[in-house]
Amino acid sequence: MLLLLVALAAAGTVVLSVGVSPWWWCAAGILLALTVLGVWDLCQTRHSVLRNYPLLGHLRYLMETLRPELQQYFIERNYDGRPYDRDVRSIVYERAKGVEAEEPFGTERDVYADRHEFLVQSMRPVEPPRQAPTARVGGPDCKRPYDMALLNVSAMSFGALSSNAILALNKGAALGGFAQDTGEGGLSEYHLRHGGDLVWEIGTGYFGCRTADGGFDEREFADKAALPEVKCVSLKLSQGAKPGIGGVLPGAKVNAEIAAARDVPEGETVISPPYHRVFSTPRELVLFLARMREAAGDKPTGFKLCVGSRRQFLAVCKAMLAEGVTPDFIVVDGSEGGTGAAPLEFADHIGMPLTEGLMTVHNALVGAGLRDRIRIGASGKVATGTDIVKRLLQGADYTNAARAMMFAVGCIQAQRCHTNTCPVGVTTQDPRRVRALDVADKAERVHRLQRATVAAATKIMGAMGVHAPDELEPGMLMRRTDPTTVLSYAELYEWLAPGVLLGEPPAAWDPDWVAADPDAF
C-alpha cells in the first residue's frame, strides 16, 4: 500500500513538474527514487521483510544499524516474552550468512557472573577431523541404520511453518547431508520435493496416518514410511514447548494442502490429544514401537519426550528389558526449548530442562544395560558449537535445533506465529506473505549454519584434546556454583556404571527403580 501511494505521488509530481512548475521536480525526483527502491525491494530475494513491506521494511534495518539494543528489545523478543541471548542470535545470523563472527576488542562481559559454565581446554590440542563425525542410529533389531549428523533440523510441522519454510529447511538438509524432523503435522509434498533426509514424526493426532475417527492407520503409515526420503520414524510422547498437552493449529491456517497432509477437515481447528490411543502402559509403548519398526520396513524407530518423572522413564526401561525390545533412538526435548506457542505456565514450570532430562535418560539407559543399543538425540536451545559439545558431554549422541534453523530461514521473532500474519513468511499460510521467503536463498543459509556450527563443535573438541565425540567426558565441563567454588559435571552429578541398576542400585536411584512398574506409568 505504501509503495502504491508513493508511486501515485511520484506520477502526480511529474505531471505538476511538467504542467505547473519545474520546482516540483525536486519532490518528483525523491518520490521516483523511492518508487524504484520499493520495486527493488519486491524483486530482491535476500530480505523477506522488504519483500513483504517494501520501503517500510527499511526502518527495521535502520534501527538495527543505529542501535542493536533497540532491535533486540522491540523486534527480536523470545517467544515467551523474554529476550533471547543476543550473542547467540548474532552467531546464528552470521553463520547463516556465511560470515564467522569474531570479537574484535576482547569482551565486556563479567566472566565470573556470565560464564557460570565453561569447557576445559587441553594443553595439547589436536587437529579437528576433516570429516564431521556422525552417529550410527540403528540397534540390533534395525536392518537399515542411518548415520545421523551432529546437528539436524528439529521437529517443526507443515502448518505451523509455511510451505516455503519447509522447502528451505529440506533443501538445506539435502545440501548438507543432515536430517529434518517433520514434526507431528504429517508428511507433505514440501518435505519430499528436494529429497532431504527425513525423520517422520508421529504425534498423538497420528497426522498423515490417521483413521477417520482419529486412530492410527498402520497401512497408510507403512506406505509413507517406505518412501526413500524417510530415513527414521519417531513417536512423539511429549515436547519441550508444551509438555503434557497437545498442540493446536488454528482453523485459519488449515488450508486444503495442510488438511490433506494431516488427514483432517479443511478450515477446522486441529487439536492434538495430550495422550496416545495406541498404548497406555510402558510395556504397550515398547511393543507399539516394535510394531512401528516392522511396518516401516525395519528403519530406525524411536520416540521423543520431555522428561517429567524419572520413575516413569525407568518403568519404560523395565518394559524394554522384559520384552527384549528397544527403540533405536530417543530424542530428549528440554522444557526450555520450543518454537511452538504454549501456555506460559507450561513453558515456565512443567517438564525437565534439557540438562536434567538428558542426563536422566542417559544414566537410566546405562544403569539398565541398554545404552549401547540406543542413540540419544538432544534438542532445546541448541544453537552453537558449544551447545553441541555440552550436550555430547551430558550423554547425547547428536543434537537437533529448531529456533536456530528458524533464524536461518528469516525468523525475526515477531511473535505472530499463531496469527497467520508472520511478516517474513516463516509461520504463515498467507500466499502473499509466504512468497517473501525465497527458498533458494534461505536453503543456502540453513546449509551454511549447520555446516559452520558443526565445524565449530569439532574445533572446540580439538581444543579440548578430543578427536571424536566418544572421547568427551563429564569432567571436561565445569560449573561455578558460587564465587569461590568450581566443580566439574563428574563431581556435581552421579553417573551410573553399566548395568548397575540390575544388581545393587545406588541409594539415590533405588526407590525409583523399585517403584518403577513396566505395566503402569
How would you describe what is shown here?
This protein has 521 residues and is of the alpha/beta class. The protein folds into 2 domains: 2-75, no CATH class; 134-464 and 494-502, Alpha-Beta Barrel (TIM Barrel). Helices cover 40% and strands 12% of the residues. The chain is built from 21 helices and 15 strands. The chain has an 8-stranded parallel sheet with strand order 4-13-12-11-10-7-6-5. A 3-stranded antiparallel sheet has the order 1-14-15. Helix 1 (2-19) runs antiparallel to helix 2, helix 4 (58-66) crosses helix 5 and helix 6 crosses helix 19 (439-463). The model is unreliable at 69-84 and 108-113 (pLDDT under 50).
**What is the CATH domain class of the largest domain?**
Alpha Beta
Question: Would you identify the regions where 5 or more consecutive residues have pLDDT less than 50?
Answer: 69-84, 108-113
Number of separate helices: 21
* N- and C-termini, Cα separation: 57 Å
Mean pLDDT: 88
Number of domains: 2
Mind telling me the C-alpha Rg?
Answer: 25 Å
The dominant shape is globular
Task: Quickly give the CATH architecture of the largest domain.
Answer: Alpha-Beta Barrel
Oligomer: single chain
Structural class: alpha/beta
Strand order of the largest sheet: 4-13-12-11-10-7-6-5
